[in-house]
Amino acid sequence: MGFFGTFFGTKQEEEITMTKLNIGIILGSTREGRVSSQVGAWVKEIADQRGDANYTVIDIADYALPLLGESGGDASGAAAWSEIIAKQDGFVFIVQEYNHSISAALKNALDYLRVEWNNKAAGIVSYGSVGGARAAEHLRGILSELSIAHVRVHPALSLFTDFENGTDFKPAAVQAASVEQMLDQVIPWTTALHTIRK
Fold it and tell me: Are 146 and 117 in contact (CB under 8 A)?
């Protein structure tokens, strides 16, 4: 092994002991007729081909999360929401633009937690009439407050060119490359921030 290998180990040993990162692909809409599940499945398909992390689609609609602080609401899903988010090392947020911002459901889900989000990295995939750009910019401010490092590359999907009739997701070929570039930034940032949380 040699002198340095004895004290510091080898690169191969480090790779064996390092488990794969967990990246949650969070669907940011819960409304009926949403298309976020189509976008999330597409992102996961691209991501899984990389083999560099464990990618999981996380649907806010699967958790009972009434408005935070609302009396009499069924918040039975809060513990499970905390648990699934805590298990993730990083995120990809699927964000749709509602009135120049993110959905109330996503904002509420973000507000439910604090430390579970801290010191993790995230990418954003948005969609809307202008690619969801304004929603993505609002989300960036919220992520910063939660100590989530958001990467620069941001796939922006147009309701006019990436969806048929506004409902059937058929992305332009160039969009897959944008997702790859985003993940090329998310993975190293997630890896680096993982060391902070150890």
Answer: yes
